[in-house]
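User: Can you write out an input/output pair for a complex, sequences first and structure second?

Assistant: Here is one pair. Inputs:
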Amino acid sequence: MPVFSPELIKIIEGFLNRYETKRSSILPILHAIQDEKDWISDEDVDTLEKSFGLSAVDVREVLTFYTMYRQQPPKPYRFEVCKSISCWLMGANDTIKTLRLEIEKAEKEGRPLPFEIHGVECLGQCGYAPSTLINKDRHNNVTSEKALQLLKEYSAKELPNAAVHCAAALAAKANK
Amino acid sequence: MSETVTLTIDGKEVTVPKGTSIIEATEILGVEIPRFCWHPGLSVAGVCRFCMVKIEGMPKLQIACNTTCTEGMKVITVSDEVKDAHKWALEFHLINHPLDCPICDQAGECELQNYYMKVGRYSSQMDEDKVLKPKALDVGDNLVLDTERCILCSRCVRFEDEVTKTSSLGIFNRGDHSIVGTFPNRKIQHNYSYNIVDICPVGAFTAKDFRFKCRVWFLNETKTICPGCSTGCNITLYEHKNQRQYYRLKPRKNMEVNGHWMCDEGRTMYEHLNATNRLAVPTIAGKHLSWNLLGKEFKQKLENVKGNADKVALVLTPQYTNEEYENILTSLKTILGNLPKIYVWRDSAEKIDDFDGILMRGDRNSNSKGLSQILEKHAAQAVTLSGDFSPLASSSANLVLVFGPEIEKSYSQFANEVTRFAELSNVIYFGTTLNPITKKFSLAIPTKVFAEKNGTFINFKGIPQKLKANPLVFPAMKGIEDIFAEIKA
């Protein structure tokens, strides 16, 4: 299996042409990879060096500096609850607690849910506190009840493409 | 180009070219400003915030490495304010430094340790726990990395980017979790890696071949010249103060020859100096001969061919000093009445004009230029023996004097080629390295190594450079000049 899909290669080349130096295009390229594969592996960085002439050390410096690039394979959905002041006042901590308990319970019952829970900083949606993101979808006024409902809703959906890619790549690697 | 600015540093006036930084100007004056990240051979980073100086008219202290000198600038490097800045800069550098000096190889030559003794605060106010980071990482053939000791000066990263252009080091992660490192599963594998150990101001990078071997304060320093190739890098050789044992060598700054660096190949040039690898006593037909009797035997052999200079063959290698060549040629001329036939033995696989782009040259002999100059001076015709030994064999000499190479590994076929001499009869071999083949010569005479000689090497550019002698590893040993002096007396 090739490391990058033809569409992704096109996107990367686009970014490389857009900026004056190759180094400038590291951030958007890493985002593009993460959008397709859910996380960025050492192998991906290696390929960036070999096929596109970016320095692996430069890429890794950027990759490890920013916390929102994932260097480990994540669960299909990242449930990110804002815990800054407005959301915190409106019960963000309760939401996080409820979600964690629910996921733990499901785990014990042998039906693991495809979710990771993160507390994040201000999402700029203080008027709709507590505000959350699930992957890139925004949800407003996520109280504990609404959070549980969202868990159900998303569990019933088909998995996003990036998660499918990620799982397939991991399975292929495990087989090797 | 010739534009200059004049400024005052601590009341002393100095004129420097335009664009010079304050720290470079202080170097000219001999004033030392404490620094970690600035290195004269690398670009300016300005990350350690340690080289603070007061500039009159500026509200705050400035870093000397990244501030350019301007006309009429008044710089103060010693004041209470500056001292205070140094103290606090060190306090911050030590927040996550493990202070494991008792087990650290850098202790004794550590810039962090030295500056702390000079300008440190002595009583820390930190009561947070230190951040734990990876230790004793194997990052290359010659390097071990301890990221806890690192103060993130980025000298090593800049060295990789600017000098070797391999860019294999970077600073990863963020804030107090930042670490210097290589990309996972990649190593630093080039011929200049030990320089990273030298420029590392702390013990983060340590050398595999010196690690845990000796404390630096037990070492004596001698300023001499590297014999590894025709570049002739200026080096400092470190010998134990009490034992006759060499431990390492480091480059010495000489902008005309090697700048600040030297290669890893050259760093191995201390190994053949130690007693375990050395030819210790003369042998005559395989039997030990005392140094007292050597002169008599040697003289006898030369007397036998007196007047028959054309029946004597002299084989030289380009690894002796000018003074030794001069001595050999004039002494033989006096004893034999004329110059013998001269052969120069060179490696058959060498590529003399090779150059790796930084320092190392294809000519792995320290004094090729010196040898050819001396031969020219004596109007001697020399035949080159390079893989083909038939000119020597067909000369049917009655006596062959071979001055073998000191650094045998610079001859790719040494083991093979030296037996070609052993096949001849009546061979006197001068050498330094312990080698079973020496027993086959009718007379084998140990000679001094480069670290024990005073003399001159001429490098590829024609720059003559002086060697400086250390005490002999074998105190009874006689040099070439002593032996010839004894014969002539």
